[in-house]
Design a protein that fits this description.
Elements lengths: L6 H7 L1 H9 L24 E7 L2 H8 L5 E9 L8 H4 L7 E8 L6 H12 L7 E2 L2 E2 L5 E5 L2 H16 L10 E4 L3 E3 L7 H4 L4 H17 L12
Parallel strand pairs: 6-7
Antiparallel strand pairs: 1-3, 1-6, 2-3, 2-8, 4-5
Length: about 230
């Protein structure tokens, strides 16, 4: 696995140091403020889609699949073309793709703005440019791929709101860009954190995110044991 190269460094630095660095740009470990602009909960149950990129898709998926109101999640690639949507090509950092997660949710149970709040609070650090923790390169950049004007408006307004309130110690670098295509990643990437809980990468980088989701959003946290 291509991410194993940094495990020796993590062992020397220690779990506490890495976790502190990941949290270091946040002004608080409490949930960040909700978006001032959002859509109300829908009156009838249905499905809607959101696509987020925030570092390694293993961790992003492991967060969103444990959110109440989320119907399904898929790890994949967005930002580039179908011809280059393979892990081997994306890791060359030349394809334009970002490791992404497609989130299918019920808008009668959770709003798009609440998903954004989770994305910015616990799924990743939105102030890191072209990296998340030990993963470096544009494929690990922070992106909100919007599917419609409402998503664009809500995401853009929320970033401005958080920056104006100086919620983070640095400015948010998250891109807000239209989704031109989403390409499912290889089968072994799907639910990777669930199926590989003892992997050192998962223990150091992803399990803390799940713990923070449970801590910061207890009313939205649900256990996850596999595809719904």
């Amino acid at each position: 696995m291509m991410r194993t190269w940094f495990f020796c460094c993590l062992l020397f630095l220690g779990f506490a140091v890495l976790l502190f660095a990941w949290k270091g740009n946040a002004a608080t470990r409490q949930p960040i403020p909700p978006p001032a602009e959002d859509l109300p909960l829908a009156q009838a149950s249905s499905s809607a889609t959101a696509v987020f990129a925030g570092g390694c898709f293993w961790g992003t998926q492991s967060v969103f699949e444990r959110v109440k109101g989320v119907i399904d999640t898929t790890a994949g690639y967005a930002g580039g073309t179908a011809a280059t949507a393979t892990y081997a090509q994306v890791t060359t950092e030349t394809t334009g793709h970002a490791e992404s997660v497609r989130v299918v949710f019920d808008p009668s149970k959770i709003t798009y703005g609440t998903l954004l709040r989770i994305f910015f609070s616990v799924a990743h650090d939105p102030t890191q440019l072209n990296r998340q923790g030990p993963d470096v390169g544009p494929s690990y950049r922070s992106v909100i791929f919007y599917l419609n004007d409402d998503q664009r408006r809500i995401a853009t307004a929320y970033i401005a709101q958080l920056d104006a309130a100086k919620v983070f110690r640095k400015r948010i670098v998250t891109e807000v860009t239209p989704l031109k295509g989403f390409y499912r990643a290889e089968a072994y990437h799907q639910d990777y954190a669930l199926h590989n809980p003892d992997n050192p990468y998962i223990q150091v980088c992803d399990r803390p995110k799940i713990a923070e989701l449970r801590k910061q959003f207890p009313d939205l946290f649900v256990e996850y044991t596999g595809k719904r």
